[in-house]
Amino acid sequence: MKVFISADIEGVSGVVHGEHTMREGREHDYARMLMTKEVNACVLGALEAGADKVIVNDSHGTMRNIYHEQLHEKAELILGAPKKLAMMEGINHNFDAALFVGYHTKMGSQGVLNHTFNGRVIRSIEVNGIELGEFGLNALVAGYFNVPVVFVSGCDLVAKEAKALIPSIHQTIVKQTINRTTALNTHPVLVRELIKEDTKTALLACKEISPYRIDSPYTVKMTFLNTGQADAVEILPYVKKNGPLGISFVCKDILECYQLIRSSIMIAGSIS
Ligand SMILES: [Zn+2]
């Protein structure tokens, strides 16, 4: 069995604030350690379920967060950026299942540290009228390769967001949302135990979960936080403005959509 793990940090138990998720400082280093141990719990669960290949993709910010040495030696780790498939770099048709660790809700929904890719750029992203966050967009990329997303960990509300798209997904809820930067957290040691067990259960049932797909062609609508960002993104081919803050484009292929979304965010992120 070949397993792909995409690891973010906002949905890790104990992570509730920008100081945990930004690039430096004592709080960030502590959060990286918590993230690493939750990812490792997922790796251990995968190995216990019989996985013979586990690829972990560090998917947060710099994409250089996980302490490599603390991962089980059978896991291989993708570190660094830029990556053509960003949070899904490394996925392909050969995997049996994808698992998302430390995930968070989409921008503007409730949920701890909610945002979609870049909290200073994106208000919303829709594909064929369905508003999706990182969970949904990354699940579509897995679905393109016929890989089901069988597990997600994070706050109570990302669990709900995931279940709405993939009803039979397995999940570990590591914290209850109180508000965007406050949560009731389960103890890290207990969380790791739960992630390991839930991963194992999810992988043993992975054939029962269908890959997440939306029918092609894809009309993508993106809304930005300031009008200058939409102006800048309109420079890209295929992209049309559809209002002061919005752009849209149409693609036949989900990977093209994902790459145009990611490129748009990089361009918009360069506008202050
Ligand atoms: Zn993140």
Our estimate of the beta-strand percent is 15-25%
The strand line-up of the biggest sheet is 3-2-1-4-7-8-9
Reading off the top of the CATH hierarchy, the class of the largest domain is best stated as: Alpha Beta
Count of DSSP-assigned helices: 7
Output the structural class: alpha/beta
CATH architecture assignment of the largest domain: 3-Layer(aba) Sandwich
Tally of distinct domains: 2
On the 0 to 100 scale, the average pLDDT is 97
Quick one: biggest sheet?
7 strands, mixed
Summarize the amount of helix as a percent range: 25-40%
Q: For this entry, what is the oligomeric state of its chains? A: single chain
- How large, in whole angstroms, is the Cα Rg? 18 Å
Q: List the ions, cofactors and other small molecules found in this model.
A: zinc ion
- What is the fold-level CATH name, i.e. the topology of the largest domain? Rossmann fold
Give the tally of β-strands.
Answer: 12
CATH superfamily of the largest domain: Dipeptide transport protein
Structural commentary:
With 272 residues, this protein is an alpha/beta fold. The protein folds into two domains: 180 residues, 3-Layer(aba) Sandwich (Rossmann fold); 52 residues, Gyrase A, domain 2. Helices cover 32% and strands 25% of the residues. It contains seven helices and twelve strands. A seven-stranded mixed beta sheet has the order 3-2-1-4-7-8-9, with helices on both faces. A five-stranded antiparallel beta sheet has the order 6-5-10-12-11. A hairpin with a 2-residue loop joins strand 8 and strand 9. The radius of gyration is 18 Å and the shape is globular. It starts with a strand and ends with a helix. The mean pLDDT is 97. It binds zinc ion. The site of zinc ion has 5 residues, from loops.
